[in-house]
Amino acid sequence: MHAVSCMYFSAGEQPFPCLASYGASKAALGLFINTLRHELEPWGVKVSTVLPSAFKTAQTSNSKYWEEQYRHLIQNLPPELLEEYGEDYTLETMELYQEFSKTANEDLSPVINAIAEALTSPNPKLRYYAGPGVSLMYFIYTYFPMYISDRFLQMHFLKKKVLPRGLRIDSGSHHNNNNINKT
C-alpha cells in the first residue's frame, strides 16, 4: 500500500476572524489535497489529511516575530487603508494573536501520531483531527446553523474590542468587530 499524508490548518474550511487571506491559501491547499486523493486513487495511493488544532511553533510563540510582522504591515499598508483601520486596531490584532499563541498546545504528539497512523494504517481515514478542540470545532461547524458556528469562532478565536477607525467615524455606534451590540 502507498500512502500520502498532508496537513493544513482548519482556517481553509472555517471562517476564522481576521484570517481571510490565510484561510484562502489553506482552502486552496485543501482542494489540492482532495483532488490529489482522486487522481492517485487508481494507483492504490491513499491520501489522508491531518487537521491540527493550534500548536506552538518557534515562529508563532516568538513575540519578536509578531512585532516584525506588525512593523512590516504598518510600513507597507497603503496610507488610506491604515487610515480606515487605524493603528490601534492593527496593534490590538497583533496582541490578540500573541495571546492566542500562548494558549497553543506544546505537545506535538497528537499530530505526530495522526501522521504515523495515516501513513501506516492499511485503511487510513480520509481525515485525522489532531489536538484538543479541533473535533468539536468541526462538529459545530458541520452540524449547527451557521450563526451558531460563526458565534463560536468569534467568541473563541479573536475577541476584538477595537473597531476599525472607519467604522468608529462613520457610525459612532456601540458595536464591536464581533457584531455584538452593546448599549
Automatic annotation (TrEMBL):
Transmembrane segments: 128-148
UniProt entry keywords in alphabetical sequence: Lipid metabolism, Membrane, Transmembrane, Transmembrane helix
GO biological process, one term: glucocorticoid metabolic process
Pfam families (alphabetical): adh_short
Keyword Oxidoreductase: no
Example GO molecular function: 11-beta-hydroxysteroid dehydrogenase (NAD+) activity
InterPro entries to which the protein is assigned, alphabetical: NAD(P)-bd_dom_sf, SDR_fam
Family indicated by similarity: Belongs to the short-chain dehydrogenases/reductases (SDR) family.
Protein name: Uncharacterized protein
